[in-house]
């Protein structure tokens, strides 16, 4: 049986005018800001007017630790949204926007796959509605205003050695990671060190995704700490009077984007912060808007549940006063096998023992989700190579954990392949079982918060942090930042900080290399291990293959 | 009498849905790609289908040498478009898009003024339809692919010292003019010199504005020379296999944008190349599309007629096989006075003698335009401070030149104030008088082309260029680039290369400091004097004032 590629399926999509999709959610045409015929932003005025409506049920899709085999988290999010609609529910999905830069390296977009995709896929992998470009502009305006302030006399007394605000670009460009700026003489300013991160790593991105409205957006932008004085006093974006102009640049980007699935169900695609140095979830405003307009909202979080779900719960839900009603943990037999030690080239062969071993990883995620007080169900995202014995092994394992697993075939069959999961998720969400609470209270000290996550989620024995780091955390507590949640930046491939330690490791330590204050986003970033914030292009970048073919179709983007 | 500000007028605009504006030009709704309710792109398919329709008349609006007093070229372009429609003609205007970066420095946008404006003004000064962001992305993808090629082995043998492709950003950021890249060790590449220009200075911008369709776009992008080998052989974007992906990034941006004037007449706003190192005109595709859909198309060129009109004729019209039917030269009494030696603070006082002296500048532009074989009329853009005696002086002067001047009050009165000029321009355009020919033939040597412009347009005695520059021009001729037009980059404030030499200087020399090959755009840039390709922010950037007010309106953008 020959399967079509994702892009072939996406090209054949029978899209409806975006106004029809909006109408399904009760959004009048005048309140939709169209971008072409298949994308639209929902007006801020319309969103504000919905504030007294009741909220729908919130369903989080998360996953086991990712492996090169792929687990299909976005595909399952999209499939579940379609599945809920297919069983007669009014459901919407909320996912993140794709970053443009990596599409020209090796990564395709994040719009799902098979028969569970969001369209228009090509637009979503290119400029989409321009949100990331707006974030780039707002970020770099602030960068320019810092250097310009120093150039014209430095009234605020910025210590040029203590500028902590870099620049951003939505491109994989390793040459810009570490640069020296302002060479060439007096007219070009004071030479200094600098560098670029990729746009999704910008604190402006995290802020846009956590702000509840335009006023909150400006407040948060104003709080960004860009530098310190010689006396180590923070200098903020507000001190530089940059917050107003940044807000103006971001106003359109703050309005959530509406598109559709292959089955013409509504999908909000908005925001896309890094899942390591930021919280990795789509925007609060998209999620809240969807909850006002749909009875069920299916959303996802970045990476595996140890990073993505934890941050979804402890950062996004905490700040936005959201509470998930059910969680779906996505697993695949192939990813189980890899977690169980099988190499990628051997994934084709049946290996029940490896599946069994890999299930430990899944088991721990199930237990972790329970600790947030939310009912969970496992979705086994079916691959054609899966054998019955392997699937039975996962089912039996999950059953022994007192949980349940359901096989889903949405990739090959669309909503028809995910009806069982859809029914069960609706039931769980409606049951009122969820007693959501974040993992730690605001009042806990910053270091204790880190320890709590490391011990209760990662199951580490200890957190290693030298005096410099502990002192920094204390200093921020004294400066009034102690109530913030922490945002862990570690490898997504393991519960530990060692990417090769798959499965369910114990007895490990979590070394904290660096801590950073994202005062605007409202969290303290805790960096454990190497975190790359500006990717490079591979030896043969996919850009070399991307082109229009003779039929005018884009080739090579996926 | 209290006048409203431009932004106040723009906010009160009674905009029609963009589909209605498109319908006026015969564009069906399905062929308009909407961006909100008041902006749209015209589909490439629709444009291609119009190719056998007859063309309307092409009217160029140009101006005397600009002064700080302002001459109102865009305002007059917009006013004339409204004026032609008001006298019953089917007219469209074509102008350039505004660059985002400078709006946060000190410059407002380029959407006209008073009652002769294009709306939505705020969008046009911010992200608009994302064209400039797409250009930035395409340009920087190519930059990243150059360094990436070297990083992975440098198969093409690029000499890192001879990389001629910089990076771009749509932001005024002097710190990025001259930088050192790839610091930080092996993983970040080979340290080297680099820098950023502002996006409008990108060759990609010039290419987008000269390409006739998407195929021509890719051809031109492929021809961009990014570096040379040690053996001085050029390395192109096609050699790096970057042209396909760049084209994909630019495909949407290639479709011209349709908006409207305050009087609801159609306006194409598309492309915005620098008017010094590039040709300074809106896109060929917008102009050609407008000519297919309207009977009269009013367009403008950058700076004064010595730079803008010359490049419009010798670069844009030559390449795109366009021929203007009439030219309007915009002048103001105030700018005449400044050209006559009056300081800005003294502009309020009547000074007929200074007007008389300043008229020399106008007179030379009139004669120059004649040398292209196109009939010209002078538009005196009326200011409230102008006295009758001053206006009479200009009228009499123009009359002595065998030309005619018409006073226009479109800024204060809209189309009603520009009826006389509109009637006269329509008459000239319909007369068949125009016998357009560019200033020099393709076959002329590059240096001779420079001399021809310097002597016949600038009225210089000689061109100064050392052996290195002459050798470079010969080398390009030998390499097959001798047929290209030249693109002069000099100060816009004078016919000469000295910005302080106002009026109509003679006896001067034109020193050529540098020549650059824009092989993709298809011209040789001739740099005479200091040309700034990355502006800085002023001491108090307008970004500090830009914000939303309590009514949700943007303040400080204009």
UniProtKB/TrEMBL annotation, chains A, B:
PROSITE patterns: FTHFS_1, FTHFS_2. It holds the Pfam family FTHFS. The keyword Ligase applies. One of its GO terms (biological process) is tetrahydrofolate interconversion. Pathway: One-carbon metabolism; tetrahydrofolate interconversion. Keywords: ATP-binding, Ligase, Nucleotide-binding, One-carbon metabolism. ATP binds at residues 67-74. It catalyses: (6S)-5,6,7,8-tetrahydrofolate + formate + ATP = (6R)-10-formyltetrahydrofolate + ADP + phosphate. It is an enzyme of class 6 (ligase). InterPro entries: Formate_THF_ligase, Formate_THF_ligase_CS, P-loop_NTPase. One of its GO terms (molecular function) is ATP binding. Its EC number is 6.3.4.3. This is Formate--tetrahydrofolate ligase. It comes from Halovulum marinum. The lineage of its organism: Bacteria, Pseudomonadati, Pseudomonadota, Alphaproteobacteria, Rhodobacterales.
